[in-house]
Design goal:
This protein is α/β, with parallel strands linked by helices. The protein folds into three domains: 1-30; 32-138 and 276-321, Response regulator (Rossmann fold, 3-Layer(aba) Sandwich); 140-273, Response regulator (Rossmann fold, 3-Layer(aba) Sandwich), CATH 3.40.50.2300. It is built from ten helices and 14 strands. The protein has helices at 2-29, 47-62, 81-89, 102-114, 140-154, 171-184, 204-217, 229-240, 256-264, 276-292, and strands at residues 36-40, 66-69, 94-97, 118-122, 133-136, 159-165, 192-199, 221-226, 249-252, 270-273, 302-304, 310-312, 318-320, 325-328. The strands form four sheets. It has a six-stranded parallel sheet, with helices on both faces. It has a four-stranded parallel sheet with strand order 7-6-8-9, with helices on both faces. A two-stranded antiparallel sheet has the order 10-14. The protein starts with a helix and ends in a 9-residue tail after the last strand. The structure holds alpha-L-rhamnopyranose (RAM). Residues 42, 46, 48, 98, 123-124, 166, 170, 172, 202, 228-230, 253 line the site of alpha-L-rhamnopyranose.
Amino acid sequence: MKRTLRSTRAALIAVAIVAAGVSLTAYAAEVKSGLKIAFVPKQINNPYEVIADDGGMSAIKEFKGEGKVVGPSDAGASSQVSYINTLITQRQDAIVIAANDANAVVPYLKKAMAQGIKVVSFDSDTGPAGRQIFVNQANAEAIGRGQVQLLSKLIGGEGEFAILSATPNATNQNTWIKWMQEELKKPEYSKLKLVKIAYGNDDDQKSFVETQGLLQAYPNLKGIVAPTSVGIAAAARYISSSPAKGKVAVTGLGTPNQMRSFVKNGTVTAFQLWDPGQLGYLAAYAAANLASGTITGKEGESFDAGKLGKRTIGKEGEVILGPPTTFDANNIDKYNF
Ligand code: RAM
């Protein structure tokens, strides 16, 4: 009897300790309700950015904040500045931004942070000076190297290819391109030749025309890598109705919904992306945790990101969503974004 009592008491104490631990964790992970969080995408009419922003808004709904999306209709270098200034005047709790040009926005984001507004960059970074946290879609080196690996497979390891990028100042595209060029230095790619980096500015028409220009300028072109959802869709559309179909491979980063018809009609064999909705969702939770004081943005801190679970901040305030997926005819119908 005594032994039972003692062990019961011990068990009760253990339960109490566990319960206290659980409630402490829950308390630490809580974000405030009513937070005003504004998303500033690269451009509001880019389908990729729309999915990302929608993901952010759904997270904000979960923790009962007030979310909104404001931003330019073009991805021009200084197009986001006036929006940031307005958000500062409106005393938002946090700004979540996909930067078109770090140099253009950092001074204004610094001003926001000086006034207590928390700043999270996502998709396209500002660099550590312009934000507390960068929510990155995937490891930038892995994305860049992965793009070359995929292209090489698609064109049999040799031939001329071009990159069709977004804007010349986009941090994300430029970082990926840098890693593509690193990957190309490996001996196994000695027969791959990067002939040109073209810029479609994340504008559908300009990307379409740039694709046409690439085909005219490089008659031996075997591939186009467009690490932009706008660029890859425009390139695929051009090539799908040109004699280059089946001869010039189009790959890069795109949304399954925009690329599905080009995979089905044989213009595109494979391309990559992550879930932009989850990217926005994670960025919203990062912003809310900063604004609630549960984290400050330092390496090693963790926060609760709703259905994405616990996330830990890495070097220079970077939080990574996860590895990209490669889409092809076998799996594309499993994805709806
Ligand atoms: C475009 C944008 C965005 C990029 C995607 C892959 O929508 O340039 O920044 O991450 O493509």
